[in-house]
């Protein structure tokens, strides 16, 4: 893990155009095939990529019951408590319709309506993520989405991870498809004989899933195009290097391209953190993945000052930001761009991933500069409401005609004039 000076620090690398082009060629071929051939294409891709010949994509109630029976009670209890925390947090994000009425007969407002159908992609490659079911499903349920579908890959036996099924069952989600990869995104976006078309697709995935979401966007809505997971820890000289190393590795184990960055003003702490990282690496079950991440993308950055550190953070706009500094709450005003901010040494990133309540679906790759964590607001749409009485419209008619005429849109102006002339007749 390299220790580098702030002025040498290069923002995390992004996939090159040529890399994306190679992926896109495959993804577009898959999307087109699914559009043209529906279930037939899906069965073919499942056999090709998952090495399984399925005879049905839908998970049966029997399979869900078997999953619930197979998971241990401690997991179920933990899952239920996480569910309660996530519901409690996201319930505060509910938006309501509003209206304002004036004495001259105008009524203006905004109508909030939940989406009809949402598809959640739950990864199942290097690991299975029941937490993804909760984090994506709960805000959709709170928003009032009528139909929620899940797609998730199967194992070599043609089975979905039982913990994922248990999480879906806990939320009452029963429409679960045994589908992964870009083909799952295409099926959700356009529908097949078995898969219902949705209005929005959410959830993380590998680079093929991310590019597929990018290509179907516009035909359906998506939450975001997620890149590799990332963590940035700002630490002062009094921070605990053992905690810092553990938290860096908690993200490095996600995949080989995960970004783990520590920023500090203390060269002494930087050395201690680096030593701790390598000591803890040897004990990890996912050592190979985490080692690749740390060697290729892990960095300890020596900042000249806290002000310099904040500049680096705001340029990075990290997905996860931990502030292991004195009085972290007081420093919040200096942070402009971050997906989730964890304050103090006892608020590690995994707390947010699983349990605290805020959503763990967060903007990556610098997109926290202009986007937000997944929330209830992502599962509703807004309609403007406009009502004018006759008197109110006539009162504003001259101004509207003037504006329309200035833009050369005389039919717009005429729409007002015919009403005014009708009244004058």
TrEMBL record:
Its cofactor is Zn(2+). InterPro entries: Ald_DH/histidinol_DH, Histidinol_DH_CS, Histidinol_DH_monofunct, Hstdl_DH. The active site is at 319 (proton acceptor), 320 (proton acceptor). One of its GO terms (cellular component) is cytosol. GO terms for biological process: L-histidine biosynthetic process. Substrate binds at residues 229, 251, 254, 320, 353, 407, 412. It comes from the Bacteria. Zn(2+) binds at residues 251, 254, 353, 412. GO terms for molecular function: histidinol dehydrogenase activity; NAD binding; zinc ion binding. Its EC number is 1.1.1.23. Belongs to the histidinol dehydrogenase family. Catalyzes the sequential NAD-dependent oxidations of L-histidinol to L-histidinaldehyde and then to L-histidine. This is Histidinol dehydrogenase.
């Amino acid at each position: 893990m390299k220790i580098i000076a702030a002025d040498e620090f290069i923002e995390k690398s992004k996939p090159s155009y040529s890399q994306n082009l190679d992926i896109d060629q495959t993804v577009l071929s898959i999307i087109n095939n699914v559009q043209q051939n529906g279930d037939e294409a899906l069965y073919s891709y499942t056999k090709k990529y998952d090495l399984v010949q399925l005879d049905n994509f839908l998970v049966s109630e029997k399979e869900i019951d078997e999953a619930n029976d197979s998971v241990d009670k401690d997991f179920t209890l933990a899952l239920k408590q996480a569910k309660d925390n996530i519901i409690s947090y996201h319930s505060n994000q509910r938006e309501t319709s509003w209206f304002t009425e004036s004495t001259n007969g105008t009524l203006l407002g905004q109508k909030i309506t939940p989406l009809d159908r949402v598809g959640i992609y739950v990864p199942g490659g290097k690991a299975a993520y029941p937490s993804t079911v909760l984090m994506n499903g709960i805000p959709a349920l709170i928003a009032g989405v009528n139909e929620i579908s899940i797609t998730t890959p199967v194992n070599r036996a043609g089975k979905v991870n039982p913990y994922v099924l248990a999480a879906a069952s806990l939320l009452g989600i029963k429409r679960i498809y045994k589908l992964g990869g870009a083909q799952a995104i295409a099926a959700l976006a356009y529908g097949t004989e078995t898969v219902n078309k949705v209005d929005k697709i959410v959830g993380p995935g590998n680079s093929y899933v991310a590019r597929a979401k990018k290509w179907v966007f516009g035909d359906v809505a998506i939450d975001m195009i997620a890149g590799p997971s990332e963590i940035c820890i700002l630490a002062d000289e009094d921070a605990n290097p053992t905690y810092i190393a553990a938290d860096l590795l908690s993200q490095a184990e996600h995949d080989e391209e995960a970004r783990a960055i520590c920023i500090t003003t203390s060269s002494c702490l930087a050395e201690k953190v680096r030593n701790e990282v390598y000591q803890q690496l040897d004990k990890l079950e996912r050592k190979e993945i985490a080692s690749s991440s740390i060697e290729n993308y892990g960095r300890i950055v020596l900042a000249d000052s806290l002000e310099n550190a904040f500049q680096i953070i705001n340029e990075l706009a990290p997905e996860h930001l931990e502030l292991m500094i004195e009085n972290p709450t007081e420093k919040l005003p200096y942070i402009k761009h971050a997906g989730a901010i964890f304050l103090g040494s006892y608020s590690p990133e995994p707390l947010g991933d699983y349990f605290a309540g805020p959503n763990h679906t967060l903007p990556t790759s610098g997109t926290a500069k202009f986007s937000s964590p997944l929330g209830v607001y992502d599962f509703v749409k807004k309609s403007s409401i406009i009502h004018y009485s006759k008197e109110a419209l006539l009162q504003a008619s001259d101004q509207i005609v003037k504006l329309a005429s200035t833009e050369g849109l005389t039919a717009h102006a005429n729409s007002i004039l015919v009403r005014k002339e009708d009244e004058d007749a």
